[in-house]
Amino acid sequence: MLIQKVLPFRKFLPARPAIQLLLSLLLTLVWQPSSWALQTRSDGAETTVSLRLKWFHQFQFAGYYAALEKGFYAEEGLNVHILGRDPGTSVVDDVVSGQVDFGVADSSLIVSRMNGSPVVLINPIFQHSPMVLISLAEKNILGPADLAGKSVMYQLDQDDAAIAATLSEVGLGHKDIISVPHSFDEWALLNSDVDAMSAYISNEPLAYRARGVKINLINPANYGIDFYGDNLFTSERMVNQQPETVVAFRRASIRGWVYALDHPDEIIDLILRKYKPEKSREQLAYEARSIRRMVQPDLLEVGLINRHRFDRIANIYRERNRVPRNADLAGFFVDDYLAPPDVRSMLLRWMVPLALVALAVLALMFVLNQRLKIRVSQKTRDAEEAREEVERYLSILDRHTCVMRVDSGLKVQYISVAFCQLTGYQSDQLLGKPHTVLLDQAHNEIRVGQLLEAIAAGQNWQAEVFLKRQDGEQLVMDVFAEPVMDPSGKVAGYNAVYLDMTQKKNAELLSITDTLTGLNNRNKLDSLLVKESKLVNRGSPVFSIILLDIDHFKLINDDNGHLVGDQVLREIARCLKRNIRETDYAGRWGGEEFMVICANTSLMGAETLAEMLRAKMAGTAFPEHIQVTSSFGVAEYSPGEAIDSLIKRADEGLYWAKNSGRNCVRARPCYVGSA
Questions:
Q1: Is 13 in a helix, a strand, or coil?
Q2: Residues 76, 186, 204, 592: which is the catalytic one?
Q3: Tens digits of residue pLDDT in 591-648
C-alpha cells in the first residue's frame, strides 16, 4: 500500500489487515479526486443508452429514476432505459458484452477488473456499503467468527466485498464457510436450509422484524470494514468510443441522486406508480432514510471517490487468492481515460494528503494502544514489548496531534497536550466536561446531532466544526470521529482527531474579499459572472448586473482626505449589504465603482433594485455630514453573450447616468449577437 511506502516508521506498525484498513479510512479525510473532463454533446442528437440495476426496483436506485423523470438525462441528450436485475445473468457480463451500457455493482467489481474484465468505475454512490449478513436469532450466530463451517448465501465475486473483508478480519477464508449461491428470495432463511444470507441493512432486516421474526445482524461497519456500495460502472469500450456519453450520463445521474435524496416522498410516489416494487410505502420510506445515511450528502459530495479505499479491497482479494497476486487497478477509474489533471493539481493532491497522513498515523497508534491495554494482562512478553514500543509514539502523538476521547456518558475522558495548547485550556479544565465544551454552540447544533447519530449507529463521522479558544477566538477544525466498541460490541464512546484549518479558511476568504469594504473582490465577481452566464446558457432564468459609481468621489478625497474617502466607501458597502437580497452578490469592482449581480432577475427587476439603492444612498448619513450620491448603469445578460459585452453595456448605462446629471439610474437593454 502507499502508506507503507512513504512512512519512515512503517516498520513499527503491526502487519495486520485491520490496521491497514484504518489507514485507508483516514485517507478518506484528505484525498481529493482529480478533476474530470467535462464534455457536452454539441450536435444536438439524442443517444440511447441502457442501465442494468444490481437488484429489483426499489429506493436503492432512486437517483437514476429521478434523473430520468426530472429530465436530467434528456437535458444531456440521453434516452435512458433503466432495467431491473435479471437473476439469470451477471450485471458485469451484461456491461462487458455490450448488452447494456452501464451497470451498478458493489466494490467486488474490483475482482472482475483484476481478473481481466474491462470494467471501468464511474462513481461510487454509497459512501458506506449497505451489505450485511443476517441469520435467525435461534441460530445463535452473533459475530463473523460464528460462521465457520456454516452455510452462507451470497453472490460470490459480485456483492461480497464487505462480507469477504469481514470474514478476513476474523481469520476466515472462502473455504472456511459453505458458500451458497443467492436465490434472490428475501425469505430464504425461512424457506431454505441456510444459516445466514447477505442482505441490505435498508431492506430485509425491517421485513423480518415486521413479520415478527427475530434475527441477528452482522454489520461489517462494526468490525472496521467501511467499503463503498452501489458503484456506477461501464466498460472500456464505452469510455473509449463514447467518452462524452459517459461524462453526460455521470453528470445527470449525480444530479438525480441529489434530487432524490432531497425529495424522497416524491420519488417514492414515482417508484410505486411506475416501477411497481414488491414493497410498501413504509418499507420504501425506511429504505430512503437508511440510504441517505449511507450516501451522506450533507457531509460529502455525492459520488466522491477515494482510490485508496479501493486499494484496500484489492489487497483483501489478493490475500484470499481470488485475484492474481500481481494484478493491479490500472485502468479501473474513469479519470484515467479522460483529461489528465494539471501538474499543480497533482502536487496539491499528493503533498497535502501525505503531510496529513503522518499526523493521522500517530492518532491511529493512540487508538491501537488503548486496545492493547484492555488485553495487557493476557499478553505474552512479545505483546508487552509491542505495547511499550507503541507508548513511545503516544508521547509524540500527545505533543503534536489534537486528539480527544469521549466516554459512553459523552464526557471528555482524554485530551492531548497539543489540543490544550491550541485552545488555551489546561487539561483539568476539560476532563469530565461534556464533549461539546469546546464547540461554538451558535454554529454546531446540527453537526452535533449528526455526530451522535453516526456514532450511535457504529459509523465513522467527518465534518468541519467551529471551536472557541479560551480567549474567545474562533477556530475552524476538520474533525474525524470513530466509535469505540466495548467487548460486547456496544458503543462505548468515540475517539476524535482534529486538524486546524483556520489559517487555510482565512486565506481562502481573503483571496475573494476586498479588504477595505468586506465585499467580494474583482476576482470573485469575475467568477460569479461566469457561473451565472453558464446557468443561463443551460436554460436557467436570466440575470442582470448593476454597476454604480460614487459621484464626485475625487472631490470627497481632495476636500476631506483619503481617510474620510475610505469611510464613505465602507458606508456604501454597508448600504449594499443591508438592502440587496440573499440571492444577490455585491462587490467592489474597482476604486469607487461597485457591482451587484442579480441572479434570476430581469432588467426591470434590476432597475427597481438599483433605484431603491440610489434612494437609500442619497438618504444615508455619511461621515463629516457629506452628501453622497451615486450613478447607476443596469444591463440584462442575453444567452450566448460574452461577459465583456454585458459589462460594457452596464458601463454605457453608467456613463449615460453621469451625463444625465448623476444620481440616477439608466439601463441598456439591447444586445445584438453575432450572425
A1: coil
A2: 592
A3: 999 999 999 999 999 999 999 999 999 999 898 788 999 999 999 999 999 999 999 9
Span 41-55, average pLDDT: 80
Which pLDDT value is given to residue 503? 76
Distances (CA, A) of 137 to 179, 188, 206, 213, 246: 20, 14, 15, 8, 45
Residue pointed to by grid coordinates 456613463:
655
Rg (CA), the chain: 29
- 523-553: b (≥16 Cβ within 10 Å) or e: ebbeebbeebbebbeeeeebbbbbbbbbbeb
| H or E, element range at 236 | helix 236-241
Whether the predicted pLDDT of 286 surpasses 70: yes
Query: How is residue 148 written as a grid cell?
Result: 465457520
pTM for the full predicted model: 0.45
From CA 483, how far away is CA 224, in angstroms rounded? 10
Q: From residue 562, give the alpha-carbon distance in Å to each of 448, 513, 557.
A: 47, 21, 5
670 pLDDT tier (thresholds 50, 70, 90): low
Stretch among 60-74, 155-169, 362-376, 570-584 having the lowest mean pLDDT: 155-169
- Which amino acid, one-letter code, is at 275? Y
287 belongs to the catalytic site = no
Give the count of beta carbons closer than 10 Å to the beta carbon of residue 458.
16
DSSP element (H, E) containing 64: helix 62-69
Pick among 3.90.1200.10, 3.40.190.10, 3.40.50.300, 3.90.1150.10: CATH of 131-223: 3.40.190.10
Q: For 133-155, how does the pLDDT look when each residue is reduced to its tens digit (9 = 90+)?
A: 889 988 888 888 888 988 988 87
Q: Which CATH architecture has domain 404-502?
A: 2-Layer Sandwich (3.30)
